[in-house]
Design brief:
One of its GO terms (molecular function) is ATP-dependent protein folding chaperone. This is Heat shock protein 70 lhs1. Keywords: ATP-binding, Chaperone, Nucleotide-binding, Signal, Stress response. It is a single chain. With 295 residues, the chain is an alpha+beta fold. Among the domains are: 52 residues; 41 residues, no CATH class. Strands 1, 2, 3, 4, 11 and 12 form a six-stranded mixed beta sheet that branches. A three-stranded antiparallel beta sheet has the order 6-5-7. The longest helix is centred in the middle third of the chain and has 20 residues. Bound molecules: adenosine-5'-triphosphate and magnesium ion. The site of adenosine-5'-triphosphate has 15 residues, from helix 7. The site of magnesium ion (MG) has 4 residues, from loops.
Amino acid sequence: MLRLFIFLFICLDTALGSVLAIDYGTDWIKASLMKPGVPFDVLLNKDSKRKIQSSVGWKQDDRLFGSDAANIAGRYPLDSFSSLKYLQAVPYDSEAVSFFTSISTADVVRTERGTVALRRSDGTEWSVEELTAMKFAYVRELAESLAGEKVHDVIVTVPPYYSQFERDSIVDAIEIAGLRTLALVHDGTAVAVNYAMTRAFPTPEYHIIYDAGASSVRATIASFTSVPSDPKVKSSAKDSTHISVASVGYDRTAGGTELDRRLREIMIDDFQRKHKKDIRSDKRGMAKLWKEAGA
Ligand SMILES: Nc1ncnc2c1ncn2[C@@H]1O[C@H](COP(=O)(O)OP(=O)(O)OP(=O)(O)O)[C@@H](O)[C@H]1O
Ligand SMILES: [Mg+2]
């Protein structure tokens, strides 16, 4: 883990231009830009909010991102794509796809390779990587307008339980978005590095970093130790911090989305009792209830 820490800083040190850091969440994307000589800055979306809804969609021929893309699900339930992180590198016959179809009105189809594609109302099919890439490219454009220059390099967070296939799927999306992967970093480790940036640890400290996200709940145990600088080495004027991740724990079945799903089930039952109508077959109605459940 220490190697990762050093690696991140070497990346930032040696990258010639700006570096984009994306915390790619199931519900929300949080992104920041690091540019030499410019204070570390969180990217704002077009409404000046510090997080961007993790959605892409189409209103006829117009492609939309963020809350605009999520909000059209009630009118265009086949053209709004959210919670795509559940489908990263999954085969069509998997529990992940069953779960996704239980929460989303999007049309999931099987590709020839047995993987997953999403079919829009106009019949076009898009892979999860292509749709994820569109979101990364959107964030890249936000970063470029802040940086005032092209942004090529990116660091993206991934959950600690991601398999090599899931990681590869993220790297593919980054590449399709025209970016270069400097590193994928576990989300808990990223928090640990951020925590250590402005602190010293004269005595070793252990912390639990708890992250209740949309898709899962994760806990990371990290140790922090300050290491005195070596007086013989000229360049190491400051003490450095060693971060070591001792353990991670997680539950992939708990999280904000599962809470929303259960709440919507209650709302569906209520609706059916009151109106004697099966709303489950009404995609627009289901999308509207999903929005209400998450509100
Ligand atoms: N006060 C709250 N009570 C319950 N759930 C909440 C609360 N605030 C936020 N949430 C849920 O937390 C989730 C958003 O958290 P966060 O932005 O950390 O998730 P994410 O990074 O998108 O997901 P992940 O890291 O799992 O991919 C949403 O699902 C939201 O419903
Ligand atoms: Mg998250």
